[in-house]
């Protein structure tokens, strides 16, 4: 009798919903409060299904299922990157004794750092307002040249492109780009590539800006459907595409079912995300490639940015650049943009680390820093 009472005792939660009234069963993310200190966090429900196939059970596995219920250490080590939303905790209530019926949507959940500035999709047009894929006439109207179309600043486009490519470089290759230009760090030779399978605006997160920088930290999240492939260059099988992913961020070869899901697919998805930032619409795949790409010319973006994004959106996956190839191209294009009038007043974390701030005239000027140069020679 006593044993039955133990197993029926409700489990005391570590986290509670910030606002239970706005949470639905199919929500993409959940705002949480940690009970012990009232700190805010972001929660993502953990899927139950494994991704591995019957033919290749060891080839690929669900990232969450592979590590649960003891995922805290190894998973957090894998996701330890400045451009990936940090894993704080994993709640796997189903594996515990006791009553879990009150746990609800937070019964099995991954807890991440709170990205308090929200996700990129909040800055973009609502995708529910787009026409159906088959409504060619409506899409032709949206894809017609329009100098007044929606667009986000080029500075933000570079910010997202640079930071999320660094995250993908880490996931695909185990290589971490450091703060020093052209400096790379390899995690280990046995790194098994990770495919997140959802590079889209709703999975790109920001933190509030600080220290005079124009934008806060930009990080990639949404690892509920990620998979670990068994070898470098590993791909997803055609039948194992990301369920529920809209066509907006699926490359043409995926829509046609002619190629597997791999790292080149995620390059295309990142390119499609930046294209949407530049045009207000996802790449209109219903039309000829060059004509669709010309929509990026409706606004005065630099040729460096337009050419980069167009390359990432190539129809053939073999023609798209890799994350490693993109690093240098992004750095060069970004530096060329920084030399334009559009960049006046822009400050990023590199500028802050070099002691630069924006003055009242909107000009970037040097500020004294603690350390080198503060005390003149002979002043001691």
Automatic annotation (TrEMBL):
- Report the enzyme's class at the first EC level: transferase
Pinpoint the Protein kinase domain residues: 1-338
As its record notes, the protein acts as a catalyst of: L-threonyl-[protein] + ATP = O-phospho-L-threonyl-[protein] + ADP + H(+); L-seryl-[protein] + ATP = O-phospho-L-seryl-[protein] + ADP + H(+)
GO terms of molecular function = ATP binding; protein serine/threonine kinase activity
For this protein, the Enzyme Commission number is 2.7.11.1
For this UniProt record, the keywords arranged alphabetically read as follows: ATP-binding, Kinase, Nucleotide-binding, Serine/threonine-protein kinase, Transferase
Query: What name does the UniProt record give this protein?
Result: non-specific serine/threonine protein kinase
């Amino acid at each position: 009798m006593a044993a039955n009472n133990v197993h029926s005792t409700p489990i005391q939660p570590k986290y509670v919903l910030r606002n239970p009234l706005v949470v639905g069963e199919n929500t993409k993310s959940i705002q949480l409060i940690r009970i012990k200190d009232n700190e805010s966090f972001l929660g993502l429900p953990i899927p139950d299904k494994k991704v591995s196939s019957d033919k290749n059970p060891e080839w690929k596995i669900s990232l969450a299922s592979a590590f649960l219920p003891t995922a805290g250490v190894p998973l957090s080590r894998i996701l330890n990157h400045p451009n990936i939303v940090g894993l704080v905790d994993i709640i796997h209530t189903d594996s515990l004794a006791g009553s879990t019926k009150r746990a609800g949507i937070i019964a099995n959940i991954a807890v991440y750092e709170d990205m308090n500035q929200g996700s990129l999709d909040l800055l973009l047009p609502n995708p529910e307002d787009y026409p159906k894929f088959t409504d060619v006439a409506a899409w032709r109207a949206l894809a017609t040249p329009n100098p007044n179309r929606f667009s986000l600043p080029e500075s933000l486009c570079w910010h997202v492109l640079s930071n999320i490519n660094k995250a993908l470089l880490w996931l695909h290759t185990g290589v971490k780009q450091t703060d020093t230009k052209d400096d790379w760090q390899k995690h280990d030779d046995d790194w098994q590539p990770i495919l997140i399978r959802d590079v889209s605006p709703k999975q790109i997160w920001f933190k509030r800006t600080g220290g005079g920088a124009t934008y806060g930290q930009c990080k990639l999240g949404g690892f509920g459907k990620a998979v670990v492939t068994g070898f470098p260059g590993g791909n997803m099988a055609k039948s194992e595409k990301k369920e529920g992913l809209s066509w907006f961020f699926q490359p043409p070869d995926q829509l046609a079912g002619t190629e597997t899901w791999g790292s080149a697919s995620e390059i295309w998805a990142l390119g499609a995300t930046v294209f949407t930032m530049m045009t207000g619409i996802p790449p209109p795949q219903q039309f000829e490639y060059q004509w669709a790409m010309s929509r990026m010319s409706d606004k005065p973006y630099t040729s460096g940015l337009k050419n980069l994004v167009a390359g990432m959106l190539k129809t053939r996956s073999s023609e798209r650049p890799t994350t490693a190839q993109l690093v240098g191209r992004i750095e060069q294009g970004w530096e060329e943009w920084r030399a334009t009038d559009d960049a006046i007043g822009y400050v990023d974390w590199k500028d802050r680390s070099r002691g630069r701030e924006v003055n009242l005239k909107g000009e970037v000027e040097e500020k004294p820093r603690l350390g080198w140069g503060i005390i003149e020679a002979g002043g001691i």
